[in-house]
Amino acid sequence: MGKGDSIGKAARNEIRKIRATYWNNLGVAIMAGGFFIPYFALYPRFYEKRGFFDHIPLADWIAVGTTLVPMSFAFFSSLILRHVAKKILEGIED
User: Fold this and answer.
1) Dihedral sign computed on CA atoms, order 8, 92, 86, 4
2) Is residue 91 in a domain?
3) Does the residue 45 lie in any domain?
4) What rounded mean pLDDT belongs to the chain?
5) Is residue 68 part of a domain?
6) Nearest to residue 84, comparing CAs of 19, 28, 32?
7) Under 8 Å CB-to-CB from 88, ≥6 apart: which residues?
């Protein structure tokens, strides 16, 4: 008897669903915390006071530059975690 023989197919499928839900929710949290929050924090610097390409001070461009790297990392990390969740779900048995 192997390790997986002690539980049934339905139980293994439920475990896979729970794992996939965990990884997907982690991706959503990273997207919300690492992408959307910085995006909305930068929004007032550009859109409330002036048009986007009007004279923009160097400090605002520095803020954008230092924020884009972690935002990009969060965005692509969330995509990778979503892919992990999808791969886990592909293992569901009929």
Assistant:
1) positive
2) yes
3) no
4) 85
5) yes
6) 19
7) 16, 19, 20, 23
